[in-house]
Design goal:
Layout lengths: L2 E3 H19 L11 H10 L5 H9 L5 H20 L11 H8 L7 E6 L2 E2 L5 E2 L1 E5 L5 E6 H8 L5 H16 L9 H12 L4 H4 L10 E4 L7 H13 L3 E2 L8 E10 L7 E11 L5 E12 L3 H13 L7
Parallel strand pairs: 1-5, 2-6, 7-8, 7-9
Antiparallel strand pairs: 3-4, 5-6, 9-10, 10-11
Helix pairs in contact: 4-5, 4-7, 7-8
């Protein structure tokens, strides 16, 4: 939506907000658990947050759930944009640091996101969201709870609609888009799809795993010392280890199979290694089968095959 001055937003929301504040005890001053910054913003802009939402904050379960989901989608988009920009020269890559600053609470460019029962624009019509810079230079986005819930009911279209709405509001504050004009938001959506990412996970209320995180599966073919060797190897390749595949960007599976062991036999070992990108429809990003035979101790044959199966894995960036 179009960037609004605090005066215009106050004018549009004040009647409803002040009626709520004066009529049912939802004055921000009655909620001491709110941060001073949040209370000041609510008072200065006369932005109404329904009592239920404020009570959620009192209950300690995350406060404004719509705002939390909104910012999580933005964080997910930022993580994926960083990933794509490792190999892309798209113009949006020039703005990724500015975008990240808007999500960093310690940055001067941080954008505060809140929700209100509904928001109106300059034409007095309901909008999905509005953004504005207040009198102190702080950037803010106000999401209309009624419109957000309407998007949630759009079973087939909610993923695209949520993502583009979120990115549009941030990109508007970056000066990349204007009211009802979404070219860069749509471009980012298409770029993420073209790179094979699961949009349903990105446009959700769960943060996607960090780019270089990996879960190494343990199986019966992998002895403890080999498992530890794989862990050390992947750490050296700049991966961070995760205990669960749900918290990792990549899942790694290694299977070792050896035959022989007789006094005059030729020992042979095969090692299969697979690394899967969990954000790309279980796409296998690396697989390798390495075999080795030799007249030597089984452990030596196995180690040679094992090292061959790992040697082509690239360091994570």
């Amino acid at each position: 939506m179009k960037t609004f001055s605090s005066f215009i937003l106050t004018l549009l929301l004040s009647l409803n907000a002040m009626a709520q504040v004066n009529g049912n005890g939802n004055d921000p001053e009655n909620f001491p658990e709110l941060s001073e910054a949040d209370r000041r913003l609510l008072l200065e802009q006369h932005i109404d947050i329904e009592g239920m939402m404020l009570m959620r904050h009192r209950g300690g379960n995350g406060g404004d759930s719509i705002a939390a989901e909104f910012t999580t989608i933005a964080q997910n988009a930022s993580i994926i944009l960083d990933d794509i920009c490792l190999t892309s020269t798209n113009d949006l890559c020039y703005y990724r640091d500015d975008f990240k600053d808007m999500l960093n609470k310690d940055s001067d460019g941080f954008v505060k996101v809140l929700s209100a029962p509904s928001v109106l624009a300059y034409d007095d019509k309901p909008r999905d969201a509005v953004n504005f810079v207040d009198s102190n230079g702080r950037k803010n986005i106000i999401v209309g709870a009624d419109r957000w819930e309407e998007i949630n009911r759009d079973y087939y279209g909610k993923t695209e609609r949520k993502f583009i709405l979120v990115i549009h509001e941030y990109f508007s504050l970056l000066g990349l888009e204007s009211s009802d004009y979404y070219p860069k938001s749509s471009e980012l959506f298409s770029m993420i799809q073209r790179n094979g990412f699961e949009m349903n996970r990105i446009a959700s209320n769960k943060l996607v795993p960090e780019s270089c995180s990996i879960n190494i599966l343990k199986n019966d073919s992998l002895e403890d010392n080999l498992y530890r060797d794989i862990e050390s190897f992947m750490i050296d390749k700049n991966f961070s280890l995760k205990d669960s595949d749900t918290s990792a960007r990549y899942v790694m599976k290694t299977t070792v199979s050896c035959e022989g062991g007789g006094l005059f036999s030729t020992d042979s070992c095969s090692v299969y290694t697979e690394i899967i990108d969990t954000l790309k429809y279980r796409e296998v990003v690396y697989d390798q089968l390495a075999s080795h035979k030799g007249w030597m101790r089984m452990n030596k044959v196995r180690d040679i095959a094992f090292n061959k199966a790992l040697e082509d894995i690239q360091a994570c960036e």
